[in-house]
Description:
There is one protein chain. The chain is α+β, with helices and mostly antiparallel strands. It is built from three helices and two strands, in the order ααββα. The protein is 35% helix and 18% strand. The termini are far apart.
Amino acid sequence: MKPVFESVEKEYKDKIEFQKVDVEIDGTLTEAYGIMSIPTFVIEKDKVELDRKQGAMPLEVFKSWIDSHIS
């Protein structure tokens, strides 16, 4: 997922903020978000979770999921 994530991060950099968390280093966020599998992607707006996806996905599926939450 790293190349997909980095591609989308560049493409959407002016629209949304991306944050990567290394679960082996930052256990606090891992626990706070209840991360049980890697990768896990969370979309938030105003600190409220809107949606969550787990597992790898193709670029177009990942973009479509993000687009469904951008107004």
